[in-house]
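To illustrate the input format used throughout this study, we show a single complete record. The first block contains the structure-token representation of the backbone; no residue identities are included at this stage. The design step must infer an amino acid for every position from geometry alone.
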């Protein structure tokens, strides 16, 4: 029996495992990048000891240090919304995030993110507009209003 032994080292390179790894990394970063929701407007939130992280999809209302209002700003390039148009913009946002009427399993939240330097009157005005918005919905479909803060260090 004449068995030949092969002493040559194969010089070919199999790129399949490398391409699988790159593909998995691509999928990982695509999924995690959609979960990241940075603050779109640069504001300094007030600090609180009882800060909680929210998981549900929310309507976000921002008030910057110049008392400009923003509704669901994306990517930091949103235009300020005049106070007179806030109700219309909030109704549009409520329809966009509308969940099955009467469904109480998913919380319906409006998060008010106001800069720490904003005058109290601007916050109260916005809070009043948000309450007027809630009056247009049935009891089970109303939004909970939350004031966002940062945790104290």
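Output of the design step:
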């Amino acid at each position: 029996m004449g068995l030949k032994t092969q002493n040559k080292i194969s010089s070919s390179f199999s790129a399949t495992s490398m391409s699988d790894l790159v593909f998995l990394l691509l999928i990982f970063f695509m999924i995690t990048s959609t979960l990241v929701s940075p603050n779109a407007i640069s504001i300094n939130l007030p600090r609180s000891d009882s800060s909680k992280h929210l998981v549900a999809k929310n309507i976000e209302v921002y008030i910057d240090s110049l008392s400009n209002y923003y509704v669901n700003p994306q990517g930091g390039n949103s235009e300020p919304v005049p106070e007179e148009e806030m109700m219309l913009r909030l109704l549009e946002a409520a329809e966009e995030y509308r969940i099955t009427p009467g469904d109480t399993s998913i919380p319906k939240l409006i998060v008010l993110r106001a800069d720490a330097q904003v005058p109290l009157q601007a916050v109260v005005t916005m809070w009043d507009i948000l309450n007027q918005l809630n009056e247009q919905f049935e009891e089970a479909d109303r939004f909970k209003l939350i004031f966002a803060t940062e945790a104290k260090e």
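Structural context for interpreting the output: Strands lie at 47-48, 58-63, 69-71, 109-114, 144-147, 150-151. The CA atoms of residues 92 and 98 lie 10 Å apart.
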